[in-house]
Design a protein that fits this description.
Rossmann fold, about 240 residues, 10 helices, 8-stranded mixed sheet
Length: about 240
């Protein structure tokens, strides 16, 4: 029987509930991160590796602009969900392969951009340095590496104080340190709002993921949307 919540166990979500992740990732939000990245870095005519492609939502968004997108995802259930979504969307410029941030099955200098939108990089002190090294290996000279995650202090969005998961925020602080202070990445902060439509829809997705405290708060305040701050870490062409 499906539990009320998985209490922030993203590994269980990816493995056992890819359809819930897909519903969570498919919730309308503004502004769209892919469109912001398109405006800043320009995907047009480029080969892009989408790391941690999940159910394919980010991959399909990038594919609206790019020549071809390679989605790397280690969970077979998520790749299957992504392939189904891509077929339904009628997109032909996407391929999905078994891969992850610290082990990219791609040739040297084979892509123009590496993009990781909220990809799992845990523990960050072990995974991120390898991700940076792998990204520099597969990106062509003049390419761009981008990793987007929730900004420190914003795990779960504006309900961060309700969820009260200090371990998750420690990871976000660590990610900032590793990307910016240790590897020289720049960053851009983006405020987004996710629109679930109804309180019930928010409970089924957001509440299922983030736990009982979040569920109680959503019910009490009859929430159907949540604001987030995301941080896009990037290493642009002059330093790759």
């Amino acid at each position: 029987m499906k539990p009320e919540t998985i209490e922030n166990r993203w590994d269980i979500l990816y493995r056992d509930y890819p359809e819930v992740y897909d519903a969570f990732a498919s919730v309308p939000y503004e502004p769209k991160m892919v469109d912001i990245l398109q405006e800043k870095f320009n995907f047009k005519g480029k080969i892009v590796a989408d790391i941690g492609s999940g159910s394919g939502q980010s991959t399909m968004g990038i594919a609206k602009y790019a020549e071809h997108v390679i989605g790397l995802e280690p969970e077979a259930a998520m790749r299957a969900e992504a392939e189904k979504n891509t077929v339904e969307a009628g997109l032909k410029n996407i391929s999905y392969i078994d891969g992850k941030a610290e082990e990219m099955p791609l040739e040297d200098n084979s892509v123009d951009m590496v993009v990781a939108l909220t990809a799992t990089m845990y523990p960050p002190e072990d995974v991120i340095p390898v991700f940076v090294k792998e990204s520099k290996r597969v990106v062509r000279p003049g390419g761009v590496v981008v990793s987007v995650d929730v900004a420190p202090g914003w795990y779960g969005g504006e309900l961060a104080g309700v969820i009260d998961d200090p371990g998750a925020d420690d990871d976000l602080q660590m990610k900032h340190q590793i990307f910016v202070e240790e590897n020289g990445f720049r960053y851009l902060d983006v405020i987004q709002t996710s629109y679930y439509g109804t309180t019930e829809k928010m409970l089924e997705t957001y509440g299922f993921i983030f736990g009982k405290k979040a569920i109680e708060y959503i019910k009490e305040h009859k929430l159907s949307q949540v604001q987030w701050k995301f941080r896009a870490y990037y290493m642009a062409s002059e330093t790759v």
